[in-house]
Amino acid sequence: MTAITDALRITGPVDLASVSPASTPGFDGRKAEGQRALEAGAERLAELQERLFAESTAGGERAVLLMVQGMDTSGKGGIMRHVVGQVDPQGVRIKAFKAPTEEERSHDFLWRIERELPAPGMIGVFDRSHYEDVLIHRVRGLSAPDVIEERYGRIVEFERGIAERGISLIKVMLHVSFEEQGTRLLERLDRPDKHWKYNPGDIDEREHWDAYMEAYEIAIARTATEQAPWHVVPADRKWYSRLAVRELLLEALERIDPQWPTADFDVAAERARLVGAGGTPAS
Amino acid sequence: MTAITDALRITGPVDLASVSPASTPGFDGRKAEGQRALEAGAERLAELQERLFAESTAGGERAVLLMVQGMDTSGKGGIMRHVVGQVDPQGVRIKAFKAPTEEERSHDFLWRIERELPAPGMIGVFDRSHYEDVLIHRVRGLSAPDVIEERYGRIVEFERGIAERGISLIKVMLHVSFEEQGTRLLERLDRPDKHWKYNPGDIDEREHWDAYMEAYEIAIARTATEQAPWHVVPADRKWYSRLAVRELLLEALERIDPQWPTADFDVAAERARLVGAGGTPAS
């Protein structure tokens, strides 16, 4: 499945208009095959995650950080449920970054991000991230242009530091089309069990669609590197975006290739202890 | 499936020797049926969890806390993977309580517990809990007898406070047999991919088995109430303990009966906005 991950990797400028949100780069099957492929990889993902965690119990320092950006309705929640949900919940920590609190605003924009970086052995997942500070901040003028300008370089430097700590960063933009977003918002309005997901503010943001796409292009161009590439994942077909993100996670773990730690105790002696004295309660 | 939950509920003293760890109270099927039943309830669990979370976005304050205690190898990890893993990871937060840190030890024993109580709408899961402070502390003499004595009452009071905050507490003891623990520890020794789970200290604890069973009996007798019952879940058959804990979770959610919140916006007006001005990007 490296065809998918190869097809999505971006290490420089990107023209979002040229990436069809309905396309399925690197995968020529349809929905049913996509869903089967998503199921088929679950076991391998689970094994690699367990190895990563096991490694950390013996001092391993490696971790994974999956960062998911995207417009409202682009499917971030579905990624959490259907991709992250494939992993043992003990090995995963999801953090959703909402509008910053007063305390968070009193600090540098990377402060709250730094605090949520995954511990060794863990798969951290960010639902939104430090990129909000160059996306909505740019579109809505929440920060001065020169402040935003400075942030791109700060982000590149920050992500280099993350890599040096042994954290494999996967940067994903779920690329949904304006039309599909309209359809999904309408569905939220038409179904009472979806009303809680609807926020009138979503339409305010929707009216700035082109500005958001431009802000994404600038952010990607300024922060996509060989070491910290972006992945623009077409997201009009949910089955594809889920499969694609799962493949990105799998690829990152395969590259880490975590190993079962070797025993730091004498296996034969422990066996003897267990079969001998440990065979009956002493108290 | 309330047959299972009814059969496991303990509201007073318990004689653990009379509960067979290989039994399957309230369920007369075998492994295959148990596994099917575990699968069959996943969808209902997911719906109720989503409702609980949705309710909280409109100010609902209710939450669930599943607390899992048990000897080493009793299957706590499997509960996390196979039961908690059935739920949308966005709605769950697992906290494993290890030996307390220096900071934690400098506070009251409930301090670190209080900090991890689930937020409204969430399902919190504790892997071990404040009961360690009356279990290992009693068996190993880590606290003076009068201190431990006082803790039972403190726990009852604490759990009453949890309930008053709208948190449904589910207290579980995974009841594995001494023999089955021996088998499972041997398996960990025999498989290199399980060595990382093995700790020579496990056998030290195993040698105090009877003292642990006594400590559990005392803890349960002193803290099992109508409002905060215990559930002693036979755990020699993993398929049963998983099904049983899932049923306890399901029952707690059914009792809460969380509701989809009603829209706090004008649905028709939003529809018009979406189809009208929101139909094309303005920027």
TrEMBL record, chains A, B:
Record keywords, A-Z: Kinase, Transferase
One example of a Gene Ontology biological process annotation: polyphosphate metabolic process
NCBIfam families the record matches: PPK2_rel_1
Molecular function terms from GO: polyphosphate kinase activity
Domain Polyphosphate kinase-2-related: 31-257
Name of the protein described by the UniProt record: Polyphosphate kinase-2-related domain-containing protein
Any Pfam family: PPK2
Cross-referenced PANTHER family: POLYPHOSPHATE:AMP PHOSPHOTRANSFERASE, POLYPHOSPHATE:AMP PHOSPHOTRANSFERASE-RELATED
